[in-house]
Amino acid sequence: MLCRAAPLVLLCVFWVPAHGGPVENLHPNITDQQLFWGADQYDFSVVLGAAGMECFWHFAHRGERFYLNFMVQWVTGVGQDRHLSVTVNAPGGLLVSTVDDVNGQVNFEAAETGFYQMCFNNFHNRFGSMQIFMSFGVYYDGSKDEDARKEEEERRFRDLNDTLSFIEEASVRLDRSVFHILRYYSFSRMRSSADHFLLLSSSRYVSWWSTALSLLIVTCGSLQLLFLKRLFISSRTGSDGERPRC
């Protein structure tokens, strides 16, 4: 009886591992394109802490174009360094691309299907954080406007760079213009005050001199009239028909 049970036990030992492990393919009749297919693209900003690192994953099929655009928007802290270290790894762990700069672009053809890893490392700033803007996605076959989307993404990235540069330049110009406006306004107020006091002084000067000249004219007229009246002396001692004599 024991001899008959031994082959059964050995059969169970070898049978269980063969059918008790995990199932690797849940849907053998469905391809990966049917499971995950779509034109995906993402645009957002993240803040990396001091010496911090953030990783993101994006799915791509073999033969498709994978793109990544990034730019450092601002940096805070002591010893600011705007450089950002970016690495892109394939699903198998192979390093596909690496960039260490303030902004950069990564564009390559996916050699295998799976999730590609993008890691952003802020090891240059150990005492400060930074905010980065990123835009990444995949261009799939069968998309009629693939080139148009790629050009649109590149244009948007260039427009963003141009916009930030324009905002910075406009802010500097605005600050300089406001400073000059305040300076000219102060000069204008000083000139207005000087003109006001000069006008008051001139008004008092004209008023005093007008009053003095008026009094002088009245006095001179009165004296002339009195002098003329004293030139003609009338004598009443004579006859009534006698004329006044000078």
From TrEMBL:
Domain of life: Eukaryota
Classification via Pfam families: EMP24_GP25L
Predominant localisation class: endoplasmic reticulum
Membrane topology: Single-pass type I membrane protein
GO annotations of cellular component type: endoplasmic reticulum membrane; endoplasmic reticulum-Golgi intermediate compartment membrane; Golgi apparatus
Keywords: Endoplasmic reticulum, Membrane, Signal, Transmembrane, Transmembrane helix
Transmembrane helix is among the record's keywords: yes
Official protein name in the record: Transmembrane emp24 domain-containing protein 6
Species, as recorded: Betta splendens
Classification of source organism: Eukaryota, Metazoa, Chordata, Craniata, Vertebrata
